[in-house]
Amino acid sequence: MNREQLESKDFYYELPDEKIAKYPLENRNSSKLLTYKNGAIDTDVFSNLEAYLPEETLLVFNDTKVLAARLYFQRKTGAKIEIFCLEPFEQTVEQALTSKQECKWQCLVGNLKRFKDGEVLELAIAGTTLRASINEKRAIDVIIQFEWEGGIEFSEILNEAGEIPLPPYLNRKTELADQENYQTVYAKNEGAVAAPTAGLHFIDSQLKKIQQKGHDLAYLTLFVGAGTFRSVKSAKLVDHDMHEERIVIDKATLQQLALKQGKIICVGTTSLRSLESLYWLAVKMKHNGNANESLITQEDAYQLPADFTWKEACEFLLQLLEKSGDSKIDFHSALFIMPGYEWKAISGLITNFHQPKSTLLALVSSWIGEDWHKVYNYALNNDFRFLSYGDSSILLK
Predict the structure, then answer these.
(1) What pLDDT shows up at residue 195?
(2) Cβ neighbourhood burial of 174 (10 Å; 0-12, 13-18, 19+)
(3) Where are the alpha helices (DSSP H) in 16-148?
(4) Are 120 and 133 in contact (CB under 8 A)?
(5) Helix, strand, coil % (nearest 5) of the chain?
């Protein structure tokens, strides 16, 4: 089917609330694992994952770390204002988090109508007073100006005062245990407002075991944004405005990727989108003759000529790094993968079960075709737990 004909209702299924996992299992890798290969579906336990990895697989992980991005202020009248920090404004994540006096963030604001222009909210925390004021109201977010004294970094303020932002579909308040449960064991680079949840199932001993079996591990960073939870509201799939996310891939990871064509399995849709975006970044740089390209749009993959192999794309980017002396590729992507997309990087996907009418379900459908119906019906009928804290699957062709 032509992607222009795809409708959001094509990716709908009935998801009863009782199928959504509100809490994780006590042991991360004791969750169920749905296995899919050549159309055959079965059930196992995640701790047996390595049994399903082809020889010499390269597993690619997203090592982003979730920010304690929800801040709660109280007006002098008593009204509570929630400020959800999405991403820095006019700064990188690293710059904003290490700021020691002020920074601006793109935010969602709860009870915004009570938060007046010119008003300064105050929150005593970490030996200082954090002040928040409205810098600009925009169509989908609000630019908030934060100021404080004391020479402490903004990351410390968030860690002291902030709350981990759980997905809205969990429909519960964040609890103390979520600070650990909603981070992968390999989380490293702060800046995400949602966890790359396919990775929540891994524990350190299993990662070591996978390596002992002859497989390799690689890490990249995609700072997951709140847009990942947005369902598709438009009737036509192509009319959905895909959110941008920042991706950082270092030279060592690029070198690993270049050597593993046909043997790459992504842990999660964020890792997958990172690699497929990386391919199109190389193509775009080559055809535009611009080594400073920094954005993949949602249309690029359907308009640019696919005239690199995966290995050639990686090697092209490595050559650019050699010339520039840079140590990493740093760019943004709004790549929207849907049925009709031509795959470049991956040979398998490890992922949880996604919301109906979501861009992530469209991605899964692009990978395994109409069999997504079989997979999801099997999961629903065999007591699999859905969404962020739910069970996992490995999808191989």
Answers:
(1) 96
(2) middle
(3) 93-97
(4) yes
(5) 35, 30, 40
Confidence of residue 93 (pLDDT cuts 50, 70, 90): very high
Q: What is the pTM of this model?
A: 0.94
Closest by alpha carbon to 300, among 328, 351, 338, 336? Answer: 336
Separation of alpha carbons 260 and 206, rounded Å: 21
Dist. CA 45–CA 28, nearest whole Å: 11
pLDDT tens, residue by residue, 157-202 = 999 999 999 998 999 999 999 999 999 999 999 999 999 999 999 9
Q: Out of 3.30.450.40, 3.30.70.890, 3.40.1780.10, 3.30.470.10, which CATH number does the structure's domain 3-65+180-396 have?
A: 3.40.1780.10
Only one residue has tokens 């524990």, namely 203
Confidence of residue 1 (pLDDT cuts 50, 70, 90): low
What are the distances in angstroms from CA 94 to CA 16, 98, 99?
40, 6, 9
Dig out the tokens for 171 from the structure. 């429909």
Closest CA to 353 of 341, 340, 363: 363
Q: How far apart are CA 36 and CA 223, in angstroms?
A: 28
- What is the rounded CA–CA span in Å between residue 89 and residue 191? 13
Round to whole Å and give the CA distance between 239 and 236. Answer: 6
* pLDDT number for residue 219: 98
Q: What's the one-letter identity of residue 310?
A: W
Mean pLDDT of the chain: 95
Architecture of domain 69-163: Beta Barrel (2.40)
What's the rounded mean pLDDT across residues 366-381?
Answer: 98
